């Protein structure tokens, strides 16, 4: 189907413009009709609960994991270790502790996205599996990987 001569397309640079909000409302209304149970879950107040773990060596930060838990999921936003402290188990310790805390909060799954030049191999060795890939994500030939892992049995 193509836009008919009766339809006019415009470019709206402001995400908060009333026209953009009207588009959001169209999708929201569709989702409420198609899957009210999920929409209730998504709109109920369940804030993100931060998990920000910092690795210290004496007085200096040498690494950390920044993320959060929400519903049954642990989201890892950033995991970084200083170059001179890599290959010492710091990343593994950060991951284990984040997953332990997430399980205590009732999480069953973990997810992360990482770029090709970052650490996909680390997460794969840790038991994460590819859930998707965007080739040439940065328009310079580097892929972005989406990885997930079951960290506890799903209780339903």
TrEMBL record:
<feature type="domain" description="N-acetyltransferase">
    <location>
        <begin position="9"/>
        <end position="152"/>
    </location>
</feature>
<dbReference type="InterPro" id="IPR016181">
    <property type="entry name" value="Acyl_CoA_acyltransferase"/>
</dbReference>
<dbReference type="InterPro" id="IPR050680">
    <property type="entry name" value="YpeA/RimI_acetyltransf"/>
</dbReference>
<dbReference type="InterPro" id="IPR000182">
    <property type="entry name" value="GNAT_dom"/>
</dbReference>
<dbReference type="GO" id="GO:0016747">
    <property type="term" value="F:acyltransferase activity, transferring groups other than amino-acyl groups"/>
</dbReference>
<dbReference type="Pfam" id="PF00583">
    <property type="entry name" value="Acetyltransf_1"/>
</dbReference>
<protein>
    <submittedName>
        <fullName>GNAT family N-acetyltransferase</fullName>
    </submittedName>
</protein>
<keyword id="KW-0808">Transferase</keyword>
<keyword id="KW-0012">Acyltransferase</keyword>
